[in-house]
Design brief:
The strands form four sheets. Strands 3, 10, 11, 12, 13, 16 and 17 form a seven-stranded antiparallel sheet that branches. Strands 4-2-1-8-19 form a five-stranded parallel sheet, covered by helices on one side. The relative contact order is 0.18. By secondary structure, it is an alpha+beta fold. The chain is about 25% helix and about 20% strand. It has helices at about 15-25, 40-50, 60-70, 90, 135-145, 155-160, 175-185, 190-195, 230-235, 280-290, 355-365, 370-380, 415-430, 500-510; strands at about 5-10, 30-35, 195-200, 240-245, 250-255, 260-265, 270, 275, 295-300, 305-310, 330-335, 345-350, 380-385, 395-400, 405-410, 435-440, 445, 455, 480-485.
């Protein structure tokens, strides 16, 4: 490698996408990363379970795998019974308010160790006013799809939100509930379309050889849900790539011929260019420490809510038995200007083991001996997770405290509740035509940041000013530092975020001087 490589900060989806593009150009790449990995004991448990056939697992094996998840500390998301992939809130924030649900990661692969795997692009109508277009991203969606597996059927959603490759995809068989619901939605296709409702099978970044063991939300024992660690393994086989884990970037400074990065272990690294993809919180911390004149960065959130719905038909089989998965099953898109000028995206989930636990925890104490009834009810529950465009959502201001940790500030959006209720009502009524009874009174909005569809703190602009970046993600005044994660997106559309972040990171790294 040369003495001054291109430096990629972070090994998450944005980082590996940029590294892929740089290596394809013949550049040399050094990736700096926090480097946390699953503990040896937890990894041994995973390997042992994956060595057996799911058909032979009894409830004892399943309970042993799931138990650590149920002991998750408040505010954390676990996989494989470990907290390795998510930093505790106090590690990132100097003053952690109760409303703040967003968390950082310093793990190999970042938050892709935890994601729900849903994959969709952005449509041009939701990118209005951006300095780039959906057409600009299209070749980079295709490039990303060469190493990101996309499972899903070809259906009407391909016209609205095409996922590349458009043909040749294999889908994971839906659950008994989802298959029945897709059939019912299809029979009402024209009536739903007249109301601005489009639907289709979910697209997931999962190997289509999914074993359907039903443990998705606890960590796939077989490693079939894509994580950036999968692509990192491919990158490390390239002689022009070097990976250095174990140290976090604290700040940077540009020089006449390059850029210098200072690390928390006291060392520094010099590079030709740096591509900052550490995740929106870590990226904000690095930018604020390096450019103190900015004072505050403001993150745009995609507010979400959960809408529970009861199916009014009988299941052909128990949804909690046999082969199934618990990832999103169906996507429902609402294009209704009277609700929002932007697309409202929904992900429908059929049975998972958390439903009965939540029902019993929330209502069981008020109704003695009701656990069996709630457990049975959970098998008829389908939940829609509804996402709004960031124009209708709260924002999160971030400044840097004396300790070097972030200080968050909530900037409430006065229209958020109204738009969210309108979207839930419209989607609930549409699903009613397919045999679902929406419990709109039980709709539950997520806390700010809890969707993890957050970014836009240094939005790209065709005429950069302080607080923005150019079309290559370079914050105003900088020439060698490119922000490649969601921080540089001008807004956060409602549809899934990771695929578009990866495509934009690949675009920036392809076009950077």
């Amino acid at each position: 490698m040369t003495d001054a490589p291109d430096i990629v900060i972070g090994s998450g989806p944005a980082g590996v996408s940029a590294a892929k593009a740089l290596l394809a150009r013949g550049r040399t790449v050094l990736m700096l990363d926090g480097g946390k990995v699953l503990e040896a004991e937890a990894e041994a448990r995973r390997v042992a379970l994956a060595a057996t056939d799911p058909a032979g697992w009894g409830q004892t094996e399943r309970d042993a795998w799931m138990a650590p998840q149920y002991a998750t500390p408040p505010g954390q998301i676990r996989r494989f019974g470990s907290d390795f992939a998510m930093e505790a809130g106090a590690a990132t924030f100097a003053d952690l308010p109760g409303w703040m649900a967003l968390r950082a990661s310093r793990a190999v692969g970042g938050l892709s160790n935890l994601w729900g795997s849903a994959v969709l692009p952005y449509r041009q109508e939701d990118m209005a006013g951006w300095p780039i277009t959906a057409s600009d991203l299209a070749p980079h969606y295709r490039a990303v799809a060469e190493f990101l597996p996309v499972a899903g059927r070809a259906d009407d959603l391909d016209d609205l939100l095409p996922v590349f490759p458009a043909t040749g995809r294999a889908g994971i068989p839906p659950t008994v509930q989802a298959e029945a619901l897709l059939g019912r939605l299809s029979r009402g296709h024209d009536a739903l379309a007249a109301q601005g409702v489009r639907f289709g099978a979910a697209r997931q970044a999962v190997d289509a050889a999914c074993r359907r063991c039903g443990l998705c939300l606890h960590g796939c024992p077989f490693g079939l849900i894509w994580s950036a660690t999968d692509t990192l393994a491919e990158l490390r086989a390239d002689p022009n790539f070097r990976y250095r884990p174990g140290a976090a970037v604290t700040r940077f400074e540009e020089t006449d011929g390059g850029i210098t990065l200072h690390l928390d272990d006291g060392t520094s690294m010099a590079g030709t260019r740096a591509f900052l993809g550490a995740g929106v919180l870590e990226t904000a911390r690095i930018l604020l420490a390096s450019m103190p004149g900015d004072g505050e960065l403001v993150l745009k959130d995609s507010q979400h809510a959960f809408l529970p719905m009861i199916q009014l038909w009988r299941n052909k089989a128990r949804p909690d038995r046999g082969a199934f998965h618990t990832l999103p099953q169906i996507f429902v898109e609402l294009d209704a200007p009277e609700v929002s000028p932007h697309l409202v995206h929904s992900q429908l989930y059929s049975w998972n083991e958390h439903y009965a636990r939540d029902l019993i925890a929330n209502y069981g104490s008020k109704l003695p001996f009701s656990a069996p009834a709630f457990t049975a009810l959970a098998r008829r529950l389908i939940v829609a997770q509804i996402f709004l465009h960031s124009d209708h959502s709260h924002r999160i201001g971030l400044s840097l405290g004396r300790s070097g940790r972030l200080l968050p500030r909530l900037e409430e959006n006065p229209v958020m509740d109204q738009v969210l209720k309108g979207a839930a009502s419209r989607i609930g009524k549409a699903m009613g035509k397919a045999g679902l009874f929406a419990l709109t009174f039980a709709s539950r909005p997520g806390a700010p940041g809890s969707s993890f569809h957050v970014g836009g703190s240094v939005p790209m602009s065709d005429k950069p000013t302080p607080g923005t970046s150019d079309v290559l993600g370079r914050p105003h005044g900088l020439t060698r530092l490119h922000v490649i994660d969601a921080s540089s997106l001008p807004a956060i559309p409602a549809t899934t975020i990771t695929f578009s972040v990866m495509a934009n990171a690949h675009r920036i790294a392809t076009l950077a001087p």
